[in-house]
Amino acid sequence: MLSALNGTTFCVHTFGCQMNKHDSERVCGMLESLGSLEVSTIEEADVVIFMTCCVREAADIRLYGQVQTMKNTPLREGSPLKKRLIAVGGCIGQRDGKKLTDQIKHLDVVFGTHNLAALPRLLETALENNCQAVEILESSTEFSTSLPTDRENSWAAWLPITIGCNNFCTYCIVPYVRGPEKSRPMVDILDEAKRYVAAGVKEITLLGQNVNSYGRDLYGEPRFAQLLKEMNDIGIERLRFATSHPKDLTDEVIEDFGTLPSLMPYLHLPVQSGSNRILKEMNRRYTREHYLELVRKVREACPHIALSTDIIVGFPGETEEDFMETYRLVEEVGYQQVFTFIYSKREGTPAAEIEDNTPREVIQDRFNRLVELVQRKAFEANQVDKNARVQVLVEGVSKRDDSLLMGKSAKNQTVHAPLPDGVTIDQLIGKTVEVQVEEAKTWYLFGHVVSE
Q: For the segment 42-67, what is each residue's pLDDT rounded down to a tens digit?
């Protein structure tokens, strides 16, 4: 029996983290298996799916705005449907559920983080019965990795090793919408990774809200260091992971950076604040001193490693001295990249109950000062690779100049270089080339291809 979606077109808009990107690839795989064709724009699509994030308020505003503007967008000519189907999934879907359809009358489907596989059924229900279909599950024991997938890039793969989170940082909504942490059996992870390697995947990124605690719920203790070693042994060219919580980063994992050839010399280690008082208010469960000791150990194990981090400015009650502790930590560490955010109040989290009278202009001034420092330190960090040769996995062409290839170094730096004479980008995508770096900018390296 043909699916009611057979012959339709769809597009997926993804907000937020790598886990959402992975889930979007599964959504694409499911819909394509039913005979629907992916397109790039809303105007071309009969079915539009929003995979959402609710970590910051801006994502809520963006979602509601985009869905509202679709109310009067006409269907494409030749569509087999009488109306465009609009679905919202991910974290906002999980959090708001039926509230979304109550507020947005032309929204057709809402699903959550625990029932990705239900999307085709919900879409068909909404289509055949001309109704709104909402299904939110409180928890799930299943991983979406069993679903069909359509990966964005043939040479790279997201590979979830855990779902959910047990940390309950006071500012974060994730544990409430993703549920408690659950680890996949190691054998399942390795089997999936071997299939990717056999299919020609060059880079695998292990995913979890806190990869460092992988296996604690299954084996009684974290086994992330062991998993990294097992992954290295399957023959993957590049291995990365996200995200790493400082409180669970072990010496064994740190040592892996110095001993495993496939583990790339790049670590995203969110600090959030450099103030011990604010870290305690955030329930981060480590101190500034412990964090800096981790940085020392990592650089001792892998001297050329690149570090990145997340920082929240304006957490409720943050003083100028608290902010300066963060500022000085960024100066001391010298990150390759820092993702800076102004605190976003999330209803339902403990931090949302904290009174704070800090003027917005004070918070914005701190944010601006930090961004200026981050840019200066990132430029300094990149100078290490000026005149060096770096291995670059080619991902495509520069957005601004299609005569330049664009790829990522082992340290996750963006690298640009002119396409070699007589070589097209299609011949290089997914391949590793050596680039002689001539210029080191704040956010990218520039050079020429030495070998391919």
A: 999 999 999 988 877 777 888 888 88
**Among 369, 224, 249, CA closest to 311:** 369
What single letter denotes the amino acid at residue 373? Answer: L
3-state helix, strand, coil in the chain (%, to 5): 40, 20, 40
The single-letter DSSP state of residue 420 is: P
The SS3 of residue 222 is: coil
The residue whose two tokens read 């359809």 is: 101
SS3 385: helix
What pLDDT, in 10s, does the model give residues 10-21?
999 988 788 888
Contacts of 130 (CB under 8 A, 6+ apart): none
At what angle are helices 251-259 and 288-301 packed, to 10 degrees? 30
Q: Are the C-beta atoms of 282 and 171 separated by less than 8 Å? A: yes
Other beta carbons within 10 angstroms of residue 387's beta carbon come to 12
Q: Is the pTM of this model over 0.70?
A: yes
* Gap between the Cα atoms of 400 and 32, Å rounded: 31
Amino acid at 345: K
Q: Residue 352 has what DSSP assignment?
A: G
DSSP per position, 390-411: EEEEEEEE-SS-TTEEEEEETT
Q: Is the pLDDT of residue 324 over 90?
A: yes
3-state secondary structure of 242: strand
CA distances from residue 193 to 107, 149, 201 in whole angstroms, order as listed: 37, 14, 9
pLDDT digits (tens, 9 = 90+) for 201-237: 999 999 999 999 999 999 999 999 999 999 999 999 9
The CA-atom distances, in angstroms, between 47 and each of 29, 97, 128 are 14, 19, 14
